[in-house]
Design a protein that fits this description.
The chain is mainly alpha-helical and 197 residues long. The chain has one domain. 73% of the residues lie in helices and 0% in strands. The protein is globular and about 45 Å long. The chain starts with a helix and ends in an 8-residue tail after the last helix.
């Protein structure tokens, strides 16, 4: 990886480190999402503590952090491995943001943004899976877990088997699943909170 590629990856990590949830809550005079609700600085928790408008701003911000650097890298025609490295860096920045004491969210919206940047149709398919389950079962974490578990297969099918992208997305999805450990335990006990509660 050349110097310019390293700069792109570092830049993507720094962009990912801008926590949309914390910034939106601060600008809108809402409580810090790290100390309210579930304690997770993500759109679902912002919905709980600040309502739909704040959650929408957070969701868009988190998705753009993943989408923008990847889409720009694709537009520039960078190597496939550099492109996915940029996406993974933005995702890791969201999870462990250098600007916010390395305490970040779980990465669902940011990974989805990366998917849209890699292949817009793949992003739409995974978003549709999430929406279908979220609408039907009203459980955000379950929708995210199912959608992101299927994401590597979707990327493989729609990107003509670019294996660096498939493995990169699989790695992000695995980390995301691990970050949802507490949610999985609540799901198994039938205690997971539904959307809006």
């Amino acid at each position: 990886m050349d110097v310019m590629a390293v700069v792109w990856v570092i830049g993507a990590y720094l962009l990912g480190s801008l926590s949309s949830a914390i910034i939106v809550c601060k600008l809108m005079g809402l409580p810090d999402p790290r100390s309210e609700g579930s304690g997770n600085p993500g759109a679902t928790n912002v919905l709980r503590i600040g309502g739909k408008k704040a959650a929408a701003f957070t969701l868009v911000g988190d998705m753009l952090k993943g989408y923008a650097p990847v889409a720009f890298a694709v537009w520039l025609g960078l190597d496939d491995q550099v492109i996915i490295a940029v996406g993974v860096a933005a995702f890791l920045g969201h999870l462990w943001p250098v600007f916010f004491s390395f305490a970040g969210g779980k990465g669902v919206a940011t990974e989805l943004g990366v998917l849209f940047g890699l292949n817009f149709v793949a992003g739409l398919v995974v978003a549709a899976i999430w929406l279908f389950i979220a609408k039907g079962l009203k459980i955000s974490s379950l929708a995210a877990l199912v959608a992101m578990t299927l994401a590597p297969a979707v990327v493989w099918y729609l990107s003509d088997g670019i294996w660096s992208w498939v493995w990169g997305v699989a790695g992000m999805s695995l980390i995301l699943i691990v970050r949802h450990k507490a949610n999985i335990q609540r799901l198994l006990r039938g205690e997971e909170t539904s959307i809006g509660r």
